[in-house]
Amino acid sequence: MRSLTPLEAAALVAGVGSVLAVLIPTFVRNVHASYVSEATAGVSDIAARAAARLEAAHSTDALPDSAPLTPSSVPRGVRVKDPPGTWDHPTWHALEFGFDTPHAYSFAFEAERTPDSAKFSAIAHGDLDGDAVLSTVQVEGSYHPGKAVELTPMDVEHEIE
């Protein structure tokens, strides 16, 4: 087996470097995007459960109260394991939502109701790269007794921040 000439070695290093220059940023972007699926699935689940409660009861009273950002501090570039009791707010119990595994987002539920209508927002905030710029995923819903719940399209801001 012969050794590479300097020109062949340089071409090999340049080729491998070019491939890595394309693949590594794409890989990192895809890893961050996979974390976003936690937020999109979470807010979709929260919104679906709130909508199901409203439609099953045919009453705005079925909408749980607002729940604060949980956990209260948005994870900064890491996945966190919550201490016991973190998801004990009555709203999280009513919506059967919470985490018992490490996660990268904090979630909130905002609710407004009158006898004639109910509105809610399911929100996730994360800081995947730890730079203090938050990514936000949100779904809003509205309900009027006798009608189906209307959900807005999912809004995603700063997807991989």
What does this structure look like?
With 161 residues, this protein is α+β, with helices and mostly antiparallel strands. It has one domain (6-157). The chain contains two helices and six strands; from the N terminus they run αβαβββββ. Strands 1, 2, 3, 4, 5 and 6 form a six-stranded antiparallel sheet that branches. The radius of gyration is 22 Å and the shape is elongated.
Brief summary:
The protein is α+β, with helices and mostly antiparallel strands and 161 residues long.
How are the SSEs placed, and which strands pair?
Blueprint: H1 6-57, E1 67-70, H2 90-94, E2 105-113, E3 118-126, E4 135-143, E5 150-151, E6 155-157
Antiparallel strand pairs: 1-2, 2-3, 3-4, 4-5, 4-6
Shape category: elongated
Largest sheet: 6 strands, antiparallel
Tell me what portion of residues adopts beta-strand conformation.
15-25%
Helix percentage range: 25-40%
According to DSSP, the number of beta strands is 6
Structural class: alpha+beta
Count of alpha and pi helical runs: 2
Query: What is the rounded Rg?
Result: 22 Å
Number of domains: 1
Topology pattern, helix = H, strand = E: HEHEEEEE
Stretches with pLDDT under 50, minimum 5 residues: none
Give the CA-CA distance, first to last residue.
49 Å
Overall average residue pLDDT: 89
What structural keywords apply?
single chain, 161 residues, alpha+beta, 2 helices
